[in-house]
Amino acid sequence: MSMSRKLSDEEKMQRQLRRDEKAVEKEAHPPVDKYGAKILRILREEAADNPGIKYNSEYFEKRFDVSNITILRAIKKLKDNNLIKDKQVHGSYAIEEKYYEDFYSQSCSEEIKKNIALIASLGGVLQQYKNTPLYDSVTDLIYFLQPEIAKSDKIFSSGRVIVSPQMEYDINTQNWEKVYDALQRNHKLRFRYTKPYTNNEAQRIVWPFQLVLDNGSVYLFAYSEYADLVLLYDLNYMTDVVVLNEEFDLPEDYDINNYSGGGRLGAYKGDKIENYKIRFTGYAKDWMKNHKLADNQTFKEDEESTTVSFSSSQFDKVLELILSWGRQAEPLAPARLVKRWKEEVLAMAEKVKD
Q1: Which residue of 103, 196, 284, 333 has the lowest C-beta tally within 10 Å?
Q2: Is residue 276 helix, strand or coil?
Q3: pLDDT in tens, 148-186
Q4: How far apart (Å, rounded) are the C-alpha atoms in residues 354 and 351?
Q5: d(Cα 101, Cα 104) in Å, to the nearest integer?
Q6: Alpha carbon distance 307, 274 (integer Å)
Q7: Helix (H, G, I), strand (E, B) or coil at 301
Q8: Per-residue confidence (pLDDT) for residue 29, from 0 to 100
Q9: How far apart are the first and last CA of the chain?
């Protein structure tokens, strides 16, 4: 049986010194709390555009609906970390930026630099959901985990790995909040759905399963008592939304991923799993080899083409993909996809003739 070696007096002293150093560092730089993270985000993103507002402790006390002492504690931690100025500027707290160069070039650890680069790369994705509560929540979390990003706009935008400029979408935030509340409590929702080709007068009562984010849009995935099906609803087409005081039991297989038939082409629910075969040429020939359209896809290549075979229940999404590649994509199976594709191509050709 091995016995642990007793520490020498020198080793004990070194360990105690390291503990003392960590304690001093923690006292000098206490971790930023959740209110401090919110304050940093607001000062960075809102203050410059609203010079008439005094962003002081009273303002944040009312905005967060917490006690003044809670705000003052958060402010002290921000000051201890040199994240905001010791003195207010025109009656408002302000980001302390003069330490930026030293922070980022010398005292900033490699781990923090990696985290900041990762945060910067998320910027493009977040922009798609800027008008939803999701944006505020995720950004607050970023400031909480890495408050140093408040030092300068350069930090947040300094990523060498970034997301390309993305289309922005207006999301109905009131609908989001009501739907999210129902999700959290497993309560039923009632609303009217005004999307074209639907019965706008009928009231839907649904069991909300998930909020689904897809390319800037937000959908509610839910079981509809009206249709007796699980369906996707675009939040922007829901009106007169009411959270009912009636609970439901969340089924085990509620996840939308269980309804795609193995397809990986975005927010789409289908009941019929079909076997697809698509021939790609030109640039699409090589592009497809590096992208996964479905869990079980296979490739067959020759000098001129790549034929992709896979199964999925996302019929309309597959058609959309084929049409997006123009002449470089040709569906071979199933027969109804080939038929639908030909109809769309011929209809486009008629428009060219006109």
Answers
A1: 196
A2: strand
A3: 767 665 555 555 556 666 677 778 888 998 999 999 999
A4: 5
A5: 5
A6: 16
A7: strand
A8: 61
A9: 91
pTM above 0.85, yes or no: no
Assign 313 to helix, strand or coil: coil
As to burial, measured by CB atoms within 10 angstroms (0-12 exposed, 13-18 middle, 19+ buried), residue 7 is exposed
Question: Tens digits of per-residue pLDDT, 25-51?
Answer: 444 467 888 898 889 888 888 888 888
Q: Which token pair is 321?
A: 């993909």
pLDDT of residue 226: 86
pLDDT in tens, 180-216: 999 999 999 999 999 887 877 788 999 999 999 887 7
Cα separation, 268 vs 264, in Å, equals 9
Lowest mean pLDDT among 65-74, 194-203, 294-303: 194-203
Q: CA 61, 64, 65 angle in degrees (round to 5)?
A: 70
Q: How far apart are CA 122 and CA 125, in angstroms?
A: 5
| Tokens at 33, concatenated | 């709390």
3-state SS, residue 60:
helix
**Cα gap 160→143, rounded to integer Å:** 20
Kindly give, in sequence order, each residue whose CB lies less than 8 Å from that of residue 128, ignoring residues fewer than 6 positions away: 166, 167, 168, 169, 215, 216
Q: Which of 165, 175, 266, 263 is nearest to 212 (CA)?
A: 266
Q: Which stretches within the chain are classed as H helix?
A: 9-28, 34-45, 57-64, 68-80, 100-102, 110-121, 123-127, 133-145, 153-156, 173-185, 282-287, 315-324, 335-353
Structure tokens at 32: 């930023």
For the range 286-292, what are the long-range contacts, defined as Cβ-Cβ under 8 Å and sequence gap of 24 or more? 292/264
Question: What DSSP assignment string belongs to 196-252?
Answer: TTS-TTSEEEEEEEEEEEETTEEEEEEEETTTTEEEEEEGGGEEEEEEEEEE-PPPT
